[in-house]
Every structure is written in C-alpha cells, then in structure tokens.
Specification:
mainly alpha, 533 residues
Length: 533
C-alpha cells in the first residue's frame, strides 16, 4: 500500500503538471513531448534489462533462505552492470535521435518536424546515465521488504522534475521568447534533474540502513557458494521477462508513433492527427493511467511476498495473494475507469481546453477502460514471475504486441484515433487472457471468488454511472458546463464526488471492501453492514 500510494501520488502529480504545461506549450508541445518520451521509456527498460525488479526477487528469495550475503553480492554486481548499460543506452538513443525522428513523421508541412523530435530525444537521453543505477538501489531495498526508499524517492523525483519542467519552460517561452521546441527540450532534460534528486534520497536511506543490512550478513548461518557468472545467470533468468513487462505500454505507444501520423494523413484526417495523438499518447493517457498506478504499486509490493510463499511451497498463502491482488484491481480500477469515461468531456475540458472537445472528450472516454487492461497486464505478469512462470509472461506480451502491429494501421484507417485505442485494447486483452490462463493451469488457481466479487463491483459501478448521468442531465438545465470552462470544472467536481462517494458507500455497506482488504479498511468495522458476500 505504501508503494501504491507513492506511485499514485507520483502519477497524480504527473497528470496535474500537464495542465500548466499545456497552457505553456499547447497541444503541439505536448504531442512533441510524447514523441520523445516514449522512446526514452523504452530505452529505460532496455538499459535496466529488468535487473532492478529481478534483484528484488533474488534478494527476497535468498533472504527467505537465510543467505543475506548472496543478495549483497548481487546488488554490487548488478549496480556495475547498470552503470554500463545505462551509458550504452544513452549513447545509442542520443546517436539514433535523427533516425527515430525521421521514421515517425512523414512530410514537411506539419507543426512538428523530425528535427524537433530528434532534439527533444537528445535532451531526455542524458537521464539514462543515472536512472538504471538508481533503480537497482530501489530493487535492493524492496527485496528487503523495505518500500519506503522507493516510495519517497519516487515522490521527490517527480516533484523536482515537475518543478524544473514548469519553471524552465515558462521562463524559456515568456522571458526569453524561446521556441516551443526549446521549451519541450528542457522539459525532457528535467528527467535528469529529477533523477539526481532521487539519488540523494536513496543515498540517505543507504547510510541509515546499511548497518542493519551488514548485521544480518554477519549473523547468517546459511550460505550459497556462487561464482559471479552463476549470479548473473540466475539473475538474468528472472530479469528477462521483466523487460517486456515494463515495456508493454510504451511499446504499444511506440507502434502508434510510427503508424499514427502516416495512417491519419493517408485516411484524410491530416488536420486532426496532432490533437488525437496528444490525447492518446500524452494528455489523456496520463489521466487514464492514474487508476492503473494502483495495479503497478500492488504488483511491485506483492512480488517479494509472493516469491517467499512460493519458495516455501505455501500454496494457501500465495493463492490468497493472487486472489487479493486481482480483486483489489477490479474493485478500484473498474469504477475509476468508468468514472473517467462518464466525465471525459468534463475532465478534458476543465483541465486542458474545451476546444475540439467533441473530438478529445469521446476519444478519452474510449481510452479509459483500457486502464483496466494495462493494470491487469502489470499484475498478472508480476504474478507469473512470482511463481517462476516468467517465460510465459514474455509469450503473452509478444503475442499482444504482434496483434497491435498487425491491425493498428488498418483500424486507424477505419476509425481514426479510436482505431489506435481499439488495437491497444485488443492487444492488451490477449496478453491478459493468456496470463490468466497460465495462472489457472500452472497452480490450479480458481477465479470463482474473483469473478463473484467482480460482478458485484460491476453492478455497483453501473449504479454509480446512473447517478453521474442523472446529475449531468439535471445540472445541464442551469449550468453551462458544455461551453464554459468554470462550469465544466464545477460539473466535474460534482460528478467525481457524488459518483465516487456513492460507489464507496455501496462497497462499504455490502462489505465488499471488508472482504477484499481482510477487514483492514480504516473505519470499516464501525459501519453497520449487511453480509451480501
């Protein structure tokens, strides 16, 4: 929950900062930012090759066996590896920036040129020198069941990065009359500034915790005699699948970046592609993945405990963890995604602009349910890795990606921006189905309880949507929320608060949350509830 909270706050800040950033650089600047940031995200995953999360699993496994020294050896060796791969990734991304930009934009008449993309990619590439080494420290702490360092460093990194983005871009545009490209380039460079701030936090934690860690090593009675090559062999067995798990969403976006603009232009939608691309790959994407961050944090926090239970062959415990993880995703992400879809016009209009709302609002409404699939990819892949089925997670993710590649251009030709969303949903759905099928067959996992509680969640979500629809209809008689931005914001706040509270009331009263969270929801025991479960 600590990791989930930190991840949620980090994502929330990442969404909030887009509002003033949009006011500074507009739709074109946000589209340009997305064009550069997605390759950077992919190179982050490739440079770390899944090592940080694999270190978390490795350390957790050998700590459970009483061998703390093995985890320390892996931490040191992995740290050196990350410094090397980070620098190599920086060089490759920096030097290939021109080629990447040229492949993503066809034609010379748009507001974004291949040269603009190449410049911003080079600016963001410097962060690759720092982030892989920093992330392995987070993985080491997580393997010791210590989530605080990761949580606090994530938040500090995001706050410093956002501060640098907003101050730097504002000064460049309004005080030095600089170009939008230059402002977006500095915004991309802020990733390095945020990473350096995170390193300071992790260094403080290391100095605070290292005496306890070395005390465990000195007191251990079990030891495994590894050669360094054997350490890396086992680590890479864990690490490989983590690469694609971390790459899943950025790879779907990367496919869009190479196919979206050419397909939109070829289908006669050249005037809309920048707006729709900004919604799908940046503005709207940042909003719809906020519910998904619960899944991401849960997956990261669950993995060491799941690995412990599976290593000790405690089937009751690890099946309980699997069930709880899936149910938490359903009970939180389903209503959140439905709420975003119901209030998509109000969200986009109040946070960004009412201009082209007839295009941007419906597009985000179509995109919102995909957050559930993104969350399920993350969690189910983490589950497979926790029970040593990581190779199957690779197969499912590759299968989904191939589907995305094969159908993306055709669906964009047919449906415009909605086609890119449909192809992503289809690809993610296939990956999730394959992961769930493997869970069922490998550990004889039953979905009966999860299905039952998901049905109840869907019923409550449907009732919540009816409440929101009625409120929008009633307030539409005297609140001009479709044309005035101040009224749009009021309608959004009314819809979120009323719909969210109504759903939580139903979930509390039915004891749904009580069952899923094992009675640990604050204040739940004081409520007089009826046992519907």
């Amino acid at each position: 929950m600590l990791l989930s909270g930190a991840s949620f706050l980090s994502r929330f800040l990442g969404m909030i900062f887009v509002i003033p950033f949009f006011a500074i650089v507009g739709t074109t600047g946000n589209a340009l930012f997305a064009y550069a940031y997605t390759p950077y995200s992919i190179f982050i995953s490739l440079s770390t090759v899944g090592i940080p999360l694999a270190v978390s699993k490795f350390v957790s496994k050998y700590n459970a066996l009483g061998d703390y020294k093995a985890g320390m050896r892996m931490f040191r060796a992995g740290g050196l590896l990350m410094l090397a791969t980070g620098f190599i990734a920086f060089l490759v991304l920096f030097l290939s920036a021109d080629w990447i930009g040229a492949q993503q934009i066809k034609g010379d008449n748009g507001a974004i040129s291949p040269e603009d993309i190449a410049f911003v990619i080079r600016m963001v590439s410097f962060a690759l020198i720092i982030i892989p080494g920093m992330s392995i420290v987070r993985g080491f702490f997580q393997g010791h069941q210590s989530m605080g360092p990761t949580a606090l460093s994530q938040i500090v990194e995001q706050i410093v990065r956002i501060g640098a983005i907003l101050i730097g871009s504002y000064v460049i545009v309004h005080y030095f009359n600089g170009s939008i490209t230059l402002a977006v380039g500095f915004a991309a460079f802020a990733a390095l500034i945020g990473a350096l701030a995170s390193c300071v936090i992790l260094l403080w934690y290391w100095k605070k915790r290292k005496s306890f860690i070395y005390k465990q090593i000195d007191a251990q009675q079990t030891s495994h005699d590894f050669h360094t090559i054997e350490l890396f062999k086992e680590l890479l067995q864990y690490a490989g699948p983590f690469v694609l798990v971390g790459l899943a969403v950025p790879l779907y976006q990367f496919v869009d970046q190479f196919t979206f603009q050419p397909a939109m232009v070829a289908s006669g939608r050249a005037t809309l592609w920048e707006t729709e691309f900004a919604v799908i790959n940046n503005l709207g994407h940042k909003i719809i993945i906020i519910p998904m961050t619960v899944a991401t944090g849960l997956s990261m926090a669950m993995l060491p405990s799941l690995t412990d239970a599976f290593t000790q062959n405690d089937s009751v415990s690890y099946k309980k963890l699997l069930n709880q993880a899936l149910q938490v995703i359903m009970v939180l992400v389903i209503p959140a995604s439905a709420g975003i879809a119901m209030l998509s016009d109000e969200i986009f209009g109040s946070l960004f602009t009412l201009e082209n709302i007839e295009v941007t609002g419906p597009l985000m409404a179509w995109y919102a349910p995909v957050a559930l699939l993104f969350g399920l990819i993350t969690v189910t892949s983490g589950m497979l890795q926790g029970i040593n089925q990581q190779n199957y997670a690779v197969i499912s993710l590759i299968s989904g990606l191939l589907v995305k590649i094969l159908v993306n251009s055709q669906l964009i030709h047919l449906f415009g921006g909605k086609g890119a969303i449909l192809s992503t949903a289809l690809a993610a759905g296939i990956a999730v189905f394959l992961n769930l099928f493997r869970l069922r067959t490998s550990v004889q996992f039953s979905f009966k309880q999860t299905i039952k509680r998901t049905i109840l969640t869907l019923i409550f979500t449907g009732m919540m949507c009816i409440v929101i629809a009625v409120l929008k209809f009633v307030f539409g008689f005297f609140l001009p929320y479709q044309t005035e931005r101040w009224a749009t914001l009021i309608m959004l706040l009314i819809g979120i608060s009323s719909g969210g509270l109504f759903y939580l009331f139903l979930a509390y009263k039915s004891t749904l949350l009580d069952h899923i969270f094992n009675g640990k929801v604050p204040g739940l025991s004081k409520l007089q509830t009826k046992k519907w479960m």
